[in-house]
Amino acid sequence: MRAPSSPSTGTWYLSNPVLANSLGYELDPANTSSMRSFFIFATLLFCAFVANSYAQDRDFYWRAADSETIPLEPASLHAGRVYHPAVGGGGMHVQIDSRYPVTVAMAWADEWNAAVRDPGAPANFSFLCVKEHVTSAIYECRLPSERPMIITFRDERKPEKPALAAIGAILGPGARQFISPNDLHIQYYNYLQPEFHWRRILDEKYQITPAPKVYSLMTPDHDGQELSVKIKSPIPLTVALLPSHLADQVYDKTVTLTDALDQTGCKERGVQSMSFNCTFNVANGPQTLLILPDIDFSGHKKATVEANTVECVEHCELLSPPANP
Q1: Domain spanning 9-192: which CATH class is it, in words?
Q2: 270/57 Cα distance (integer angstroms)
Q3: Residue 43 CA, distance from chain mean position
Q4: From CA 192, how far away is CA 310, in angstroms rounded?
Q5: Phi, psi of 290 (to 5 degrees)
Q6: Which of 1, 173, 181 is nearest to 74 (CA)?
Q7: Residue 301 — φ and ψ, nearest 5°?
Q8: How far apart are alpha carbons 140 and 56 in whole angstroms?
Q9: pTM for this entry
């Protein structure tokens, strides 16, 4: 069978029955330049996209996961891990070490599966992030959407057709084992990042008094940590998020409320029914929510207060350390 002029279309066959992810590709020498042109064109087409978009993900933390070693035959094509990006796409990172040069590219998983199900039908692959002549390299690609993709590896050696024909006539199909295999080692990496969940840290209905009401909430675990506060009161209140040491000074009357409020951007006056959000930094230490009536009042009055924050729940060791004061 003759291969067409582009590696993205043509007739494919299983080159290694023990490798379910491998396809062989019969190459016509006349098509060598066409194949090279295709890969060069694909590389140029996606180079700018990958460079610009992947630059946004340079803070990724990659941790070694599983690995595999594949004995590739000349001109064979092997598929590795399937990637399932989130909506909007995502990055991937693989270490590749090969005895002989290989071409690495990403293909749509559904196109690959269709070729495996019917190897006699014309294949139609759309390759992204093509990288040729790889023997040892870190391969990275920014996957453009949530559509699953699969990483592929093509052995760049030409099949030795005359030798195979002679040996095969004597020994049969098993003669293919005499070809020196291309030992391809693939080290996969998983992307890790801190994970955050909202957590309720305060939910109370309390008796309003002339003295400040203080709630020691928490010590932030990351800069920019969000806090959401909901207040409902029959009278106007001043609500402020302060470093705990400053709130203690207000409570002890060693610092005036006005001076303390000047030192925080998370404050609201005249609150009766309101929701507002704040962010704070690790360097500010433990945080306290302070609530104080704005007016004199008589009788028994109650207010409700609720506070929720975003806390790190997994891979928190990856959080950036606090800046030096």
Answers
A1: mainly beta
A2: 43
A3: 23
A4: 18
A5: -115, 130
A6: 181
A7: -135, 140
A8: 13
A9: 0.52
In angstroms, how far apart are the furthest CA atoms of the chain? Answer: 107
Could you give the angle at the alpha carbon of 262 between the alpha carbons of 261 and 266, nearest 5°? 55
Q: Token match 């019969």: residue?
A: 26
Q: Domain 195-314 class?
A: mainly beta
User: Mean pLDDT, the chain, as a whole number?
Assistant: 78
Distance CA 106, CA 77 (A): 12
pLDDT at residue 142 above 60? yes
Question: Which residue shows structure tokens 């306290």?
Answer: 288
Query: Which token pair is 186?
Result: 């693939």
| Backbone Cα Rg of the chain | 32
Q: Kindly tell me if the per-residue pLDDT of 8 is higher than 90.
A: no
SS3 state of residue 121: coil
Domain boundaries, the chain: 9-192, 195-314
Q: Indicate the pLDDT class of residue 319, thresholds 50, 70 and 90.
A: confident
- DSSP-derived 3-state class of residue 297: coil
**DSSP-derived secondary structure for 142-201:** EE-SSS-EEEEEEE-SPP-HHHHHHHHHHH-GGGGGGSPPEEEEEEEEEEE--EEEEEEE
Q: 9-192 with 195-314: one CATH topology?
A: yes
The predicted-structure confidence for 222-259, as pLDDT tens digits, reads as follows: 888 899 999 999 999 999 999 999 988 888 888 888 89
Question: Do 83 and 107 touch, CB atoms closer than 8 A?
Answer: no
